[in-house]
Design goal:
Largest sheet: none
Order of helices and strands: HHHHHHHHHHHHHHHH
Distance between the termini: 43 Å
Helix content: 40-55%
Number of helices: 16
Number of strands: 0
Structural class: mainly alpha
Shape: globular
Length: 326
């Protein structure tokens, strides 16, 4: 939505434990929605469908019928300095179906959704719902609400909104998140069918990587461990330079080979994820520490910790140190 033209969300195929409530914890799960400037998808495309429709009755009927007016709900506050111009050109193309005033207001709410996605999901939801109330047939508005629902783990709502985006825009760029939402609903076979649908062939390279991450997670859920790992042995796993999905792909592959018992290989790929995770989307560093045994409590053992705690009685400084280990 902002800058790169999509709200983002990162699928959860790799299941990084540092999740932010989003589904594809691997599209982290991460995509994303990390903020609204997400990591997969492309709501910035300018769909030709969804150009607005008239919901009013015919002119003759309007004259004879009283107009029902629903009280306008109070709208969430727009932060100072947010103009709506932060949106990319593709989203603004969608907003041309609206009046100038409405387009500017919707744009501001979409920007606020993106800004609040990481830190205040409820506030982000309020802005996204406002955008949908004002522009229900604009794909970017429906995508924003879908991404919020996705981040909140409301898989049914997210899937519904993503389907609406596809219907309005004709684009399947949200397919990885749709597959992950099906996974979140426990419909693994349906998720795999969707991942293998003809629409998958229309995805960009970035979107195909996100889909592969999600499918790998589904395979692990089903106990298909060899398939989970082999599905991620793709050219992008070792491609240069670093791309937005590099860390998540490496993380997902590390998880997949770890499930196969290949600890050294997992350590290698968690290290790759650490080195390429500039945005700290994963908990790869923690996973690497776990594999290397860097856990003070585990290293000491419960008996030794208990012994030190006993010795620390009466010594506040030493007691604080021991408590910090437990």
């Amino acid at each position: 939505m902002v800058a790169d033209g999509h709200g983002g969300g990162s699928p959860r195929g790799g299941e990084p434990r540092r999740e932010r409530g989003q589904g594809p914890r691997g599209p982290g799960s991460g995509h994303s929605s990390r903020g609204g400037a997400g990591r997969s998808g492309g709501a910035g495309r300018a769909p030709e469908a969804g150009r607005g429709a008239s919901y009013g009755s015919r002119d003759g009927d309007r004259a004879s019928r009283p107009v029902s007016r629903t009280p306008r709900l109070p709208e969430p506050r727009i932060e100072e300095g947010v103009t709506g111009k932060e949106l990319d050109r593709g989203v603004w193309t969608q907003l041309r179906t609206l009046s100038k005033e409405n387009a500017e207001g919707v744009a501001q709410h979409l920007v606020m959704t993106a800004l609040l996605m990481e830190d205040d999901i409820e506030a982000a939801k309020a802005h996204a719902e406002t955008a949908v109330r004002r522009a229900g047939r604009v794909p970017a508005a429906r995508e924003a609400l879908g991404l919020v629902a996705y981040r909140m783990g409301d898989w049914a709502k997210a899937l519904s909104e993503f389907r609406t985006v596809r219907r309005l825009s004709g684009s399947s760029h949200l397919l990885p998140l749709m597959v992950d939402a099906e996974r979140g609903l426990g419909r693994h076979e349906k998720a795999l069918d969707l991942a293998q649908s003809p629409e998958a062939a229309t995805l960009t390279r970035d979107e195909r990587v996100e889909l592969a991450i999600v499918v790998s997670g589904i395979r692990r859920d089903l106990g298909q461990l060899d398939a989970a790992a082999s599905g991620l042995r793709i050219a992008e796993l070792t491609a240069k330079p670093v791309r937005p999905w590099t860390a998540r792909l490496a993380y997902a592959y590390a998880e997949a080979v770890l499930a196969l018992g290949e600890v050294e290989e997992a350590r290698r790929w968690f290290a790759v994820a650490v080195d390429t995770d500039a945005d700290l989307e994963t908990d790869a560093s923690e996973r690497l520490d776990e594999l290397d045994g860097i856990n003070q409590t585990d290293l000491l053992g419960d008996d030794q910790v208990d012994g030190e705690a006993a010795e620390a009685e009466g010594d506040p400084a030493r007691e604080a140190t021991v408590e910090g280990r437990s």
